[in-house]
């Protein structure tokens, strides 16, 4: 849909993208595969609904995320992100689009990965190892909530990957194999945008333009608009469209890895986040 006027009645070029919606409870798998394939050919972004994660639990995850980000900075810095990419990332710490950004991203985050004990041989691998957790006395039950959501979101990702496999004319369990998603590098990112107003002309972004590097990313946001996609990264000028949040739905996008594996048939699309002065929260398993 296109929004043609702003509050002052002047023309407003802001555009909201129309994305396909995949219902994971749909008994007609052929219809789901057809819709998903078209979404992957079009822009690599789509919604997933009826995925099995309850709205009540999603609300709890967002409440717990806010509890962490509302802590004093000195408390958050106690769990600063380590060499395994686990823990807290402060505002401006990440820079996703250095060619166009004046500063880093105006967001703060928290990274959680697959939990592997420090004495486990697997912990020697990149992106594997123990997580960094806030003290239980500071945020009671926080770790348990995030570990449960990490597990449930990974199951959704696997269900989506099975539909993707069929869309690529592969066996339905292709991505379930041990060498594929049997032991995935699955990272849960909690993100908080504090309310900075973005200005692309000045290089100020909530999150700079980038494509994801992995297989797929799942995203749940609050009701504050901010995510934008550019379906044609080579267009000049680039055209950016907002992706509207849908309560209870995951927004799914493909990563560079899947674009390469599909011989560039499926799209890994540029996306960014613009702040409009409102606080914004999102949770992103990938």
From TrEMBL:
One of its GO terms (molecular function) is dioxygenase activity. Gene3D superfamilies: B-lactam Antibiotic, Isopenicillin N Synthase, Chain. Keywords: Iron, Metal-binding, Oxidoreductase. InterPro entries: DIOX_N, IPNS-like_FE2OG_OXY, IPNS-like_sf, Oxoglu/Fe-dep_dioxygenase_dom. Pfam families: 2OG-FeII_Oxy (PF03171), DIOX_N (PF14226). SUPFAM superfamilies: Clavaminate synthase-like (SSF51197). Residues 184-286 form the Fe2OG dioxygenase domain. Belongs to the iron/ascorbate-dependent oxidoreductase family. This is 2-oxoglutarate-Fe(II) type oxidoreductase-like isoform X3. It comes from Durio zibethinus (Durian). The lineage of its organism: Eukaryota, Viridiplantae, Streptophyta, Embryophyta, Tracheophyta. The gene is LOC111286065.
